[in-house]
Amino acid sequence: MSFQALHDEMNEQVANRLLFEQAQQAACAYLDGARDMDAFPSSESLALLGRLDEPMPTSPTQPTEILRLLNEVGSPNTVGQNSGRYFGFVNGGVTPVAVAAKWLADAWDQNAALYVMSPIAAKLEEICEKWIVELLGLPDGTAAGFVSGSSTAIICGLAAARNTLLARQGWDVAEHGLFGAPPIRIIVGEQAHSSVWKALSMLGLGKANAEIVPADEQGRIIPSAMPPLDSHTLVILQAGNVNGGAFDAIDEICDAANQAGAWVHIDGAFGLWAAACEATRHLVQGMAKADSWSADAHKTLNAPYDCGIVMCKDRAALTGAMQATGSYLQFSDNRDGMLYTPEMSRRARSIELWATLKFFGKDGVDQLVSHLCEVARYFAAQLTGHGFVVLNDVVFNQIVMRCDDASRTTTLLEKIQSSGKCWCGGATWGNQPVIRLSVSSWQTTTADIDECVALFVEVQHP
Ligand SMILES: *Cc1c(COP(=O)(O)O)cnc(C)c1O
């Protein structure tokens, strides 16, 4: 087939819409069945994946055939993130309006690097920044960058911190790098998320240079164990421990940091949203006193993947750290998203984020967060009532549990995972194997919890 023929055929595919109707039908059927689907694919489903093993095709394939194959093999091999019975990692669900907005955005195929590449994406970034700063109660003028997830957002926040702390000592890290730079101190809690360690290693700060502060049994930094702070210090706090959901003593530590002139970054991948809910706001009290923050809209807020946000009180510190130059780049008086992120070309995730925020509104976000927390508390109470041991204080949406001995816990986890009806992951907590449950989807109801707890009981005492 000549390229001209291919070109004509693609235009015909746009005109006759069959392809898009097929995709819409498959997606709607998938969403219709989401509540009833398994939380993890069966072994029969997984065996279908082998159908994709083939050499790279030489000639074009019929698009309707491609979609048919993708639906037949792909749909059964997804995890049931919107089933209401998926509790793995901290994986949020997705709202219908965000999916629909994303479909439209996909058709637009926008590059969010610059205003001149996509006025709509730039405008929505500007609005999302303003709304999120207000929603989370951050200082006026706080800048936000829209990245893939918290792993990247943490790198951006810590880069802004590193550059500022070194600039205070007369060192331009962008120009001179870290060789020969004056030292900065890094204070990290013992239970910091692995992505914090990754960021420290990628930014040349080094894990061994961190002063590690011991944590209590919930995973919170012990405030009295904090070393003295100074204006060359970066303090990394956590709003929401990835296992138990515990929050560091943000208010107290920020006060000490502010007094010393230290920089505070808060990793609040899922927990930062506590600030948007009346019932949980106390958990992040004082967080506006920090200098930078990172969060995921694809977790607690139930926005589609991938949707991470870095926020920085000092706009110039963030844009300075993300700075790019190139004579062909055309900056405008409007928002140029790439100034706030490491990437240049970037998908326009502000579109779905905006749709999510506009759909929920402040009241809806408040209700969503309190719903997740209420369901988690109900889950914990039901588990305790059935003789399981809940190890953490369920202050947010996370539960850490075990059976009465370690081998039973491990067996229970294996049986639950292989049942497919419900899915949760494992971790270690105080050197023992535990099961971790994250209530992160708007779909999860107490009826789902009853079903899952019955499954826990049934697989433990068959
Ligand atoms: C999920 C998580 C991260 C990493 O976020 P990604 O979006 O997966 O990159 C970092 N910190 C905490 C506390 C998390 O829960």
What can you tell me about this protein's structure?
This protein has 462 residues and is α/β, with parallel strands linked by helices. It has 14 helices and eleven strands. The protein has helices at 3-16, 18-32, 43-48, 63-74, 96-108, 119-135, 150-167, 173-176, 194-202, 250-260, 315-321, 350-385, 406-419, 446-460; strands at 143-147, 185-189, 210-213, 233-238, 263-267, 292-296, 308-312, 389-390, 398-402, 425-429, 432-438. Strand 4, helix 10 (250-260) and strand 5 form a beta-alpha-beta unit. The N and C termini lie far apart (61 Å). 45% of the residues are buried. Bound molecules: pyridoxal-5'-phosphate. Residues 90, 149-151, 193, 195, 240, 242, 267, 269-270, 296, 308 line the site of pyridoxal-5'-phosphate.
Which features would summarize this protein structure in a list?
12% strand; four-stranded antiparallel sheet; 462 residues
Query: Which sequence of SSEs, written as H and E, runs from N to C?
Result: HHHHHHEHHEHEEHEEEHHEEHEEH
| Molecules bound to protein | pyridoxal-5'-phosphate
Major pleated sheet = 7 strands, mixed
What class, by secondary structure content? alpha/beta
Tell me roughly what share of residues is in helical segments: 40-55%
* Beginning-to-end CA distance, first to last residue: 61 Å
Number of strands: 11
Sheet-strand content, in percent, reads 5-15%
Q: Radius of gyration in whole Å, from Cα?
A: 24 Å
Number of helices: 14
Largest beta sheet: strand ordering: 1-7-6-5-4-2-3
Q: Which spans have pLDDT < 50 for at least 5 consecutive residues?
A: none
Outline type: globular
Q: Indicate the mean pLDDT.
A: 96
